[in-house]
């Protein structure tokens, strides 16, 4: 069964520091990978996705992620954290165009002034 | 441009009561999903539908029923609510094939006392 693991349920960074949120998946076939963000009391919003092609994917709000097949990883990064980035982030995966997404348990990002 | 609309936004039920959560989308999406979100558990799939008149079970379907009589609507029913069903429920929709990602509603916060 497909699965995704997010390392660290809570990450805290200083404003202006690098943001790194980790996501690993289990698969024997090429995956479709997604990162979603959830602001307090809101639904989830798509940040970026990898389906095929370029392994470095750029998303909204300055975030990017790199698909590394050899490491089965899809870590999310942002060079400089902003206070408005404080939210919960979810990694999700599917291995078929017709199979529902499986979500990780989420990582809450706190940004300290 | 409403996207995915969930009603109600909040509800308190007594144990044993029944209720129906409504999800409506105006994007002509074929696929619709119901997830529940619990602290530390991420999002878990309850049921989903790949088209009008079709439904399928997800990871945690027990205690829930669904119907998709119209393409734009996906209903989630609780026949006899239990405290374990206290959660935030999210509806999502997508085009055929997961590569497009999901559009989420803003959620329904349900408390069963």
What's this, in brief?
The complex is a heterodimer of chains A (113) and B (113). With 113 residues, chain A is an all-beta fold.
- Tell me about the largest β-sheet of chain A: 6 strands, mixed
Overall pLDDT score of chain B? 94
Task: Estimate the global geometry of chain A from the Cα principal axes.
Answer: globular
Write the element-wise H/E pattern of chain A from the N-terminal end onward.
Answer: EEEEEEEEEEE
The rounded distance between the terminal residues' Cα atoms of chain B is 36 Å
Shape of chain B: globular
Radius of gyration of chain A: 13 Å
**Strand elements of chain B, count:** 11
Our count of helices of chain A gives 0
Element order of chain B: H for helix, E for strand: EEEEEEEEEEE
Rg of chain B, Cα atoms, Å: 13 Å
Secondary structure: helix percent of chain B:
under 10%
Looking at how many chains there are and whether they match, the oligomeric state comes to heterodimer
Compute the number of helices of chain B: 0
Helicity range of chain A: under 10%
Helix and strand content put the structural class of chain A at mainly beta
Our estimate of the beta-strand percent of chain B is over 45%
The biggest beta sheet of chain B is recorded as: 7 strands, mixed
Task: Please tell me about this protein's structure.
The complex is a heterodimer of chains A (113) and B (113). Chain A contains no helices and eleven strands. By secondary structure, chain A is mainly beta. In chain A, the strands form two sheets. In chain A, strands 2, 4, 5, 9, 10 and 11 form a six-stranded mixed sheet that branches. A five-stranded antiparallel sheet of chain A has the order 1-3-8-7-6, with no helix packed on it. In chain A, a hairpin with a 5-residue loop joins strand 4 and strand 5. By secondary structure, chain B is mainly beta. In chain B, the strands form two sheets. In chain B, strands 2, 4, 5, 6, 9, 10 and 11 form a seven-stranded mixed sheet that branches. In chain B, strands 1-3-8-7 form a four-stranded antiparallel sheet, with no helix packed on it. In chain B, strand 7 and strand 8 form a beta hairpin. Chain B is 0% helix and 51% strand. Chain B has no helices and eleven strands. Chains A and B meet through strand 4, strand 5 and strand 10 of A and strand 5 of B.
């Amino acid at each position: 069964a497909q699965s995704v693991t997010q390392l660290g349920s809570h990450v805290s960074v200083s404003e202006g520091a690098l943001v790194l949120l980790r996501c690993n998946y289990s698969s024997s076939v090429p995956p479709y990978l997604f990162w979603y963000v959830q602001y307090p009391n809101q639904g989830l919003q798509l940040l970026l996705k990898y389906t095929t092609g370029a392994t470095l994917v750029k998303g909204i709000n300055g975030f990017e992620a790199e698909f590394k097949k050899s490491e089965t990883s899809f870590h999310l990064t942002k060079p400089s954290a902003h206070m408005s980035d404080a939210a919960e982030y979810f990694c999700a995966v599917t291995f078929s165009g017709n199979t529902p997404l499986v979500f990780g348990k989420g990582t809450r990002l706190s940004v300290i002034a | 441009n409403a996207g995915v609309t969930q009603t109600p936004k909040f509800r308190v039920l007594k144990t044993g009561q029944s209720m129906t959560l409504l999800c409506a989308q105006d994007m002509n999406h074929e696929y619709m999903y119901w997830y529940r979100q619990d602290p530390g558990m991420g999002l878990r799939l309850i049921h989903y539908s790949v088209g009008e008149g079709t439904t399928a079970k997800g990871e945690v379907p027990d205690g829930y029923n669904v119907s998709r009589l119209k393409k734009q609507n996906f209903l989630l029913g609780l026949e006899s609510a239990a405290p374990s069903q206290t959660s935030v429920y999210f509806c999502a929709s997508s085009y055929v094939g997961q590569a497009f990602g999901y559009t989420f509603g803003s959620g329904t916060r349900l408390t069963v006392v």
